[in-house]
Design goal:
With 104 residues, the protein is of the alpha/beta class. 22% of the residues lie in helices and 26% in strands.
Length: 104
């Protein structure tokens, strides 16, 4: 069965994303796709069309709900099943550190 792990990406936390991804990949023992959920890429693919604005202090704002978004993947994380297609998938925030094999 195909396995995928998706990690939320926020340009303000790129280093945390890299550490999270490395901690996962170094412990995998079977083929597992590890991908970032990158808002700019999802917009380019036409998958994320929800309007957002950047407010002061680099704060992303959701126009529809009129609320701040704590990360760029606050809403886009819900595309994980679509991005995964078939098989099993997991989503995690970028501030996670894997200490065990997640690809079992």
């Amino acid at each position: 069965m195909r396995q995928s792990i998706f990690i939320g990406f926020d340009h303000r936390h790129a280093a945390a994303h890299a550490v999270c991804r490395h901690s996962i990949e170094r412990r995998l023992t079977r083929p597992t796709s590890v991908r970032g959920v990158v808002l700019a890429d999802l917009r380019a693919m036409g998958l994320y069309t929800r309007p957002t604005e950047m407010h002061e202090h680099d704060q992303l704002w959701d126009v529809i709900s009129e609320a701040p978004m704590s990360t760029e993947f606050a809403i886009s994380r819900f595309l994980t099943p679509h991005l995964a297609g078939i098989g099993m998938a997991a989503f995690m925030d970028c501030d996670i550190l894997a200490r065990v094999n997640l690809g079992k």
